[in-house]
Amino acid sequence: MKLTGFLKQNVRVRFAPSPTGHLHIGGLRTAFFNYLFAKKYGGDFILRIEDTDRTRFVDDAQDQIYSSLNFYNLLPDEGPREGGKFGPYEQSKRLEIYRNAAYRLIDSGHAYRCFCSENRLDLLRKTAEKRGEIPKYDRKCANLSSRDAVKMEQNGEKFVIRFKLDKQNVQFHDEVFGSVNQFIDESDPVLLKSDGFPTYHLANVIDDRKMEISHVIRGMEWLSSTGKHTILYKAFNWTPPKFVHLSLIMRSATKKLSKRDKDAFVSYYSEQLGALPEAVLNLMIRNGAGIRNFDAEHFYSLDEMIEQFDLSLLGRRNLLLDSDVLQKYSRMAFQKSDFKELYPRIIDILNKKSNYSTSREDIQKIVTFLKAKEENFGFLSSLSTEFSWFFTRPQSSQLLKESHPNVDLRNILNSLLEIEVFNSESLEYLAKNHQLNLAKAMGIVRISLIGSKKGPPISELVEFFGMTECHRRIRIMQELL
């Protein structure tokens, strides 16, 4: 695709999630690529809430969607809260628009009112299944005269509006998958339900047209619906937007990501892992998807991604959700992070995980230490697990006693209190005096200081805590013994 093609028209793209629960990681990727494309070409990134499926509607889902977009700095230009001249941006508030569009198709002969009951439709399905056929509506109501259909509507009879979907071949162009041919042989789909709510196909096409969407960028699970959408555009005598379908997110080369997987949802990365936003965004482009001169060893800022984004470089290769790669980008993100942005994220993860209370100065000291001494640190959640010793002193002597049976721990701790600085020389002297090897002596010190066998070298703990705090922790361990 040529750049000049974009410049000739105003780029307007939309992220259109359904408020049915937690945002899926695939939804975040869709929002991300829409945002990159809009910002690359000075266009508009629109948030549209597709809330017509009232049976699956979740009250706070829109709040969660906004929270996720804010966390990743993918801020909409137009949307339910931002406003805009193409609103409302919630489909449940656009019912009159869909109704008028559906009746326009009736008037042009492309749609009809269907008064068939659920019982009759169920009987048609069962009959088709017995014959080993794909269930299809038999178009009984398509044969009603316009006069009879209007009269039945005026009498208050319940009906839906169906689209006349004739058997046909459809060809359309996708910017990633090229020329796509689809053979359409389906039942006449419902466009407008009896409760006045549209189905996905009608609302999607109408809103993309009314909101002047130039490019539809979405997951490839919608590729199979695009043929029907193309037919609908033709029925309205409208030119479709350009279609861009993103490849799948996979668990492995052969296994799709399941909605039962905890890492299938955006909240897992921010709330459970404490992954920084740009680490997750770098994971999304790890195949070089859409990034010019992609370097797998480079950590891209969001501004860099926008600058180097090229829609023509989006590939068909599926994205593997690799935890090792995410950890790598998380380490890089932490090293490049600015404390001003990092601080509220750390406080948030600590409050959610352990409710630790500490000052801004202490947090800054911890961050400085981690950046200098812990090259593998990346996920903020580890502050409440393996690095909880930053915030708490040892609570039990159990690990110390289990790890060092038949050792006079009280006497050793007394000797430690007499040492001015813990270093290899002083600890080696202590080990010899108590007939221990150096590793055991250092193990006693580490557990006494941080309550864990694992952790930074003793010299780094001394540097971080200072000897006054080290002695205080030794005394606490004495009391616990």
TrEMBL record:
Record-level Gene Ontology MF annotations: ATP binding; glutamate-tRNA ligase activity; glutamate-tRNA(Gln) ligase activity; tRNA binding; zinc ion binding
Domain Glutamyl/glutaminyl-tRNA synthetase class Ib catalytic: 10-327
Species, as recorded: Caenorhabditis elegans
Broad EC category: ligase
SUPFAM superfamilies in the record: An anticodon-binding domain of class I aminoacyl-tRNA synthetases, Nucleotidylyl transferase
PANTHER family, A to Z: GLUTAMATE--TRNA LIGASE, GLUTAMATE--TRNA LIGASE, MITOCHONDRIAL-RELATED
UniProt keyword Protein biosynthesis present: yes
Similarity comment: Belongs to the class-I aminoacyl-tRNA synthetase family. Glutamate--tRNA ligase type 1 subfamily.
Protein name per its UniProtKB record: Nondiscriminating glutamyl-tRNA synthetase EARS2, mitochondrial
Domain (Aminoacyl-tRNA synthetase class I anticodon-binding): residue spans on this chain: 358-476
PROSITE patterns the UniProt entry points to: AA_TRNA_LIGASE_I
Family annotation (Pfam families): Anticodon_2 (PF19269), tRNA-synt_1c (PF00749)
A cellular component annotation (GO) from this entry: mitochondrion
Catalysed reaction, written as an equation: tRNA(Glx) + L-glutamate + ATP = L-glutamyl-tRNA(Glx) + AMP + diphosphate; tRNA(Gln) + L-glutamate + ATP = L-glutamyl-tRNA(Gln) + AMP + diphosphate; tRNA(Glu) + L-glutamate + ATP = L-glutamyl-tRNA(Glu) + AMP + diphosphate
GO biological process, one term: glutamyl-tRNA aminoacylation
Record's keyword terms, sorted: Aminoacyl-tRNA synthetase, ATP-binding, Cytoplasm, Ligase, Nucleotide-binding, Protein biosynthesis
InterPro entries the UniProt entry points to: aa-tRNA-synth_I_cd-bd, aa-tRNA-synth_I_codon-bd_sub2, aa-tRNA-synth_I_CS, aa_tRNA-synth_I_cd-bd_sf, Glu-tRNA-ligase_bac/mito, Glu/Gln-tRNA-synth, Glu/Gln-tRNA-synth_Ib_cat-dom, GluQ/Sye
E.C. numbers: 6.1.1.17, 6.1.1.24
